[in-house]
Amino acid sequence: MRSFARRGPAAVAGAVVLAAGLAACSGGSPAKRTAASPSSGAPSASPSAAVNPLTGTRAGVGKPVLAVKIENTRAAMPQVGVSAADLVYVEQVEGGETRLMALFSSHLPARVGPVRSARISDLHLLPQFGRPAFAFSGVQGKMKKHVKAAPVYDVSEDAGPKGYSRSSAKPAPYNLYGDPRDLLKRAPNAQPSKDVGFRFGPAPEGGKPTSSFTARWPAARMGFTWSAKQKRWLASWGGTPDRAAEGGVLGGATIVVQYAETTRSRFHDFLGSYTPLIHTTGTGRATVLRDGRAYDARWSRPSENAGTTFTTATGAPMTFASGQVWVVLVNDGKPYMP
């Protein structure tokens, strides 16, 4: 899952075992997910060392990354701390619902949550960030060995209670919150994000004027509406504003709707519903929303250790607006129900 080129033979062997194990437990073909080459038009220049590779701003440069799994159903709302994230992923889980994985480095809110359990797709996404701290609550039993072998620092509630607290305002399991500062203290060697392929700058030519976009899953839908006043896309959930507990509405300067093949993994929840596996290596199409316009784009990620690059229809770099980025992962085709 990550590069061990500078390590010894034992580490290389461990990496091979981990990658093979993830491929096997995911129920998909590793060749299909990792053999694809980047687009010939993919950006090749690295971002400046003085710029946060997740946001294109100077905030958070050199600071460790904390990834947190967060509930994304009505019972969890309003969510806490998400507005402070550098990058937010929206992932499909069992039953056609979605869950967030928010990454923090620039700003650490006092609390974040509700914190929920990890999924196999998280372990396929996280290697591109180096070795971040990973906060979650619970994991399917057969996945525990894969979490242990993954290139993350496990700061889950399962691994220890420090940094977590329960709220009396909501019922379990929607009442667990994390303190990012305390969680990062449990992972003193957590790494800053490396280059993940994002490029920031003035908008490319083209794009279609767009005021709103709706992403759909079998049991959920999220909308994003352009606010010229706030210069960002305001999120909605189920047709109503997706409000932050701190005030205002969640959303980002750039929304990336990444179409990725979604299949059944070998894992399932306690009800017997199979966990979707989102294939985020290879190539595919995307819709990028920025500055009130929608751009047809292509994404490319040649391996799990590599970042994801985005290009326009002409092969030019698909630049993002500086600020919070949302990557909304939807099935490439009809909404997928395992």
Can you lay out the helices and strands and say which pair or pack?
Layout: H1 9-26, H2 30-34, E1 66-71, E2 87-92, E3 98-104, H3 120-125, E4 133-135, H4 144-149, E5 153-154, E6 164-166, E7 176-178, H5 180-185, E8 208-209, E9 212-217, E10 220-227, E11 232-237, E12 240-241, E13 251-252, E14 254-260, E15 262-268, E16 274-278, E17 282-290, E18 293-301, E19 309-312, E20 325-331
Parallel strand pairs: 1-4, 2-20, 4-5, 14-20
Antiparallel strand pairs: 1-3, 2-3, 6-7, 8-18, 9-10, 10-11, 11-12, 11-13, 14-17, 15-16, 17-18, 18-19
Signal peptide: 1-31
Keywords: Lipoprotein, Signal
Organism: Actinomadura rubteroloni
* CATH-defined fold name: YerB-like fold
Rg over CA atoms, rounded to whole Å, is: 19 Å
Task: Give the strand content.
Answer: 25-35%
CATH superfamily: YerB-like
Number of helices: 5
Order of helices and strands: HHEEEHEHEEEHEEEEEEEEEEEEE
CATH architecture: 3-Layer(bba) Sandwich
Number of domains: 1
So what's the CATH class?
A: Alpha Beta
Region (Disordered): 29-56
Domain DUF3048: 61-190, 219-327
Biased composition (Low complexity): 29-50
Keywords: Lipoprotein, Signal
Could you explain how this protein is built, in words?
- It is a single chain.
- The chain has 338 residues and is mainly beta.
- The chain has one domain (66-331): 3-Layer(bba) Sandwich (YerB-like fold).
- 12% of the residues lie in helices and 31% in strands.
- The chain has helices spanning 9-26, 30-34, 120-125, 144-149, 180-185, and strands at residues 66-71, 87-92, 98-104, 133-135, 153-154, 164-166, 176-178, 208-209, 212-217, 220-227, 232-237, 240-241, 251-252, 254-260, 262-268, 274-278, 282-290, 293-301, 309-312, 325-331.
- Strands 1, 2, 3, 4, 5, 8, 14, 17, 18, 19 and 20 form an 11-stranded mixed sheet that branches. Strands 9, 10, 11, 12 and 13 form a 5-stranded antiparallel sheet that branches.
- Strand 15 and strand 16 form a beta hairpin.
- The longest helix is centred in the first third of the chain and has 18 residues, at 9-26.
- The radius of gyration is 19 Å and the shape is globular.
- The two termini are 25 Å apart.
- The model is unreliable at 1-21 and 28-45 (pLDDT under 50).
